[in-house]
Write a sequence for this structure.
């Protein structure tokens, strides 16, 4: 998937992406977050900007609250 640095990805996007990663790789929520930090963000949390980062964190919080 090609991403442009000029657009902000939504929490819904990250929520769906994280669920796909969790289900396909059979990872826990914490493992999924680490995988996305490494793979998607390339170990640079702000590579796509602060707004995208905040949307990612919001989605991960939502997933964590649903998995309790």
């Amino acid at each position: 998937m090609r991403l442009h640095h000029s657009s902000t990805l939504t929490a819904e996007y990250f929520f769906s992406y994280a669920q796909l990663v969790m289900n396909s790789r059979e990872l826990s929520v914490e493992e999924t977050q680490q995988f996305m930090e490494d793979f998607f963000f390339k170990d640079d949390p702000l590579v796509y900007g602060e707004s995208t980062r905040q949307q990612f964190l919001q989605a991960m919080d939502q997933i964590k609250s649903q998995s309790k």
